[in-house]
Write a structure and sequence with these properties.
Order of helices and strands: HHHHHHHHHHHHHHHHHHH
Number of helices: 19
Strand content: under 5%
Helix content: over 70%
Structural class: mainly alpha
Oligomer: single chain
Radius of gyration: 22 Å
Distance between the termini: 13 Å
Amino acid sequence: MIGRSMLAYIPVNLATLVVSFGGIVILTRLLGSAEYGRYALAVITMMGLHMGFFTWLEAAMARFQARAERENDVATHVKTLYVYALRTAIPTLAFFLATLYVLPLDTQIKLLLTVALTSSCMQLFFNLGMEAHKAAHRIKRYSASYSTHQLMSFTVGIILILTTPLRELGPFVGICVATIFVLLFDFPFMLKKMKGGSVEPAKAKAYFSYGMPISISLILTYALSSGDMYLITWLMENGESAAGEYSASYNLANRSLDILFIWIGMAVTPIAVTALEKEGLEKSTSVLKDYGSALLWIAMPAATGIALIAEPAGFILGESVRAGAVKIMPWIAFAGVMNGMISYYAQRAFMLSGKTQMFVWTMVPPVILNIGLNLWLIPQYGLMGAVWSTVIAYALGLVLALLVGRRYFPIPIPVKAFVQISFACLVMAGVVISIPIANNIPDFVEILIKASVGVAVYGFLCFSTDTAGCRSIIKNLVGKYRGGPKSSMEATS
């Protein structure tokens, strides 16, 4: 089931892949390091606003869709969330625009943040539809809408950078244009789902109680991964340029892994929620056991591969950010694995149990530790100090999230899979490092050679030892291509 669901989301992940890496390649070349640094800070600010004020609505849509279907109450569920989204977005945007007006910031920064925050509010209504489609297993509609949004926002943003003086504002204007376009088609569909429903404050209160702790915990998790940017800008000379280098490296290494985590998560999380609501705890736990092993099986070798090709992969980045970025990329890759396991695996224990407020408390100690370490290490070691701080804080966060989460939901810890995969990654790394590479060989050729050998070695070891049950996953994928039977859940997508 997991393998087939993952296949259905391939178009979405291909679009995300194009946008993510295309953005890194193109934006680090079209924008100077300071411009890219301001763009990255605007993205972080936009994401922080969205998580803090809007994510609770999106989380409630994802979590309670299956329950609404079971209770034949989808119209009220959807209408309540959309109406409260409108009631939340308008005053939130007004408050932040007024705050920007009175702050002593440069006019260009104010304009940049204004467009970024506006795009975030618009995306709330787009995201609600996407979460509803995923939760209801409308995979084709979700894939078409999300992929269109990703590719259009990216294309329009690049065109604006090339043809107008907008510079770092261009990508955010592109997001606004793409969001409006997709909503013209998707919102009428969602209006039909609201037909006959009512707005129920009691439901909204329950949704807020469930979703707001998720919003706060996401802010804390995001602070672990991106809050360093503000401290780097503040504590280092040429802070905006240094922030650009850090962001470029983080986007190239961590975003690669994030795509994998999101891909598997969007395929499995709706299945786990539906299983819990309609089939019970045992079935949901079984789904999560396979899910955790699949995450490690894909993410750990990917992180190892990123670390092995960090130096030659630097050609992907623009020269203004390349030198500093490649030095910290291996560390960021392994930090990304821990980040992904916190956000896309351990957090599911709190989500499924409804004890989302407890996830907040597990993230507080790592965030405090991260800030303290950054203040201590950045002045001494620069960007590397920021990376070390993040790695240590992530390790603490993952341990706390798993230990506390298991008190409320029996989420499996895939120890056996971790040991098997670690061994396969070590062997793969040893073989790749021993490959004789000529000094004059082009970087992309070196990457292809190392990647091909690494995949072959890792794949052979995993299949021969059935690491993390990979044989079953591969057989399921082969069965999908041969037209194997679909589950009833998949048939409704």
